[in-house]
Amino acid sequence: MSDIRKMVCIACPIGCHMKVTLENNEVVKVEGNSCKRGVVYAKAECTNPTRILTTTMRVIGGKYPLVSVKSAEPLPKGKLFECMKVINGVQLQAPMSIGDVAVKNICDTGIDIVLTRDALTATQKKAAAV
Asked: Per its UniProt record, what Pfam families does this chain match (predicted)?
């Protein structure tokens, strides 16, 4: 039995409207794509959708109560809520720097959650750019 899904490709700025035909959960046909990246995107989105997770985490002793974080790589879409439960249960201790690992190997995915900005203490000042 065939399953047909319609989607908008986000692999490039064109935003092609594609029709993807699946049989037994395998992509057998992709229509409407303008480039090869559309086929790759459609197959990945239909068989193993992933997303970069961006959020904030609580900071103890920081200049600000929250710091922005993201997953170092795309996470499986089905694990996002589980990952958020873990992140919401963690409090970071200032100071920390951009790129530092906030949560290692979140939910056994092999992917780290990293800071996207510095988490300074209340008395620290950011070093001036040279």
From this structure: DUF1667
As a 3-state breakdown, the chain gives helix, strand, coil percent values, each rounded to 5, of 20, 40, 40
pLDDT band, residue 1 (cuts 50/70/90): confident
Q: Please give the distance of CA 76 from its chain centroid, rounded to a whole number.
A: 9
How far is 47 from 42, CA to CA, in rounded Å?
Answer: 8
Phi, psi of 18 (to 5 degrees): -115, 155
pLDDT in tens, 54-88: 999 999 999 999 999 999 999 999 999 999 999 99
List C-alpha distances in Å: 107 to 12, 79, 104, 112: 30, 8, 9, 10
| Each residue's pLDDT tens digit, 108-120 | 999 999 999 999 9
Task: Evaluate if pTM is beyond 0.90.
Answer: no
Q: Is 31 exposed, middle or buried (0-12, 13-18, 19+ CB in 10 A)?
A: middle
Cα separation, 115 vs 96, in Å, equals 8
